[in-house]
Amino acid sequence: MKLSDIVGYRLDMVRCAALRSLHRLLAGSSFRPADTTTLLFVKEHPGCDQTMLGHALAGNRSVGMKLAARLEVRGLLTRGEGRDGRSKGLYIAPAGEAALADLLALHAKAEARLTAALTERERAQLLTLLGKIERTVLDEEADLAAGGSQQEQAARAGVGLET
Questions:
Q1: Is 99 in contact with 76 (CB distance < 8 Å)?
Q2: Are 51 and 37 in contact (CB under 8 A)?
Q3: Domain 3-114 class?
């Protein structure tokens, strides 16, 4: 097997290239790529808490807390009633809506650069395939969290583990 045949490696290299492109587009602004993700997630999930936000950013509660606090100080997010009555929910502020519109325009340019060599059909297919990979990993993590062992995971996948 060659390095270029390892899906995880290729995904990581593409992700890094995409982030570099996005950072170039955001240069000169006070925003980071995670700011767009944060604002868009909160807009799509009004009242979400910091833990939900952190998980959406492939992190944990502390990641969500730091991003929410930074954007709240700038007047882009507000806190209000949470979903469970005990926690504070996050909401996008009017200034956050305006900033998000500008950020999404920059993201559209980055997406166009990233997928320039793909047809619309190929782009849609890529998103479908990435969704399948993501779902497989999330299912594995859920099984492990529920007590499934790596041996059970391998047996379900039809892979033998060396012992």
A1: yes
A2: no
A3: mainly alpha
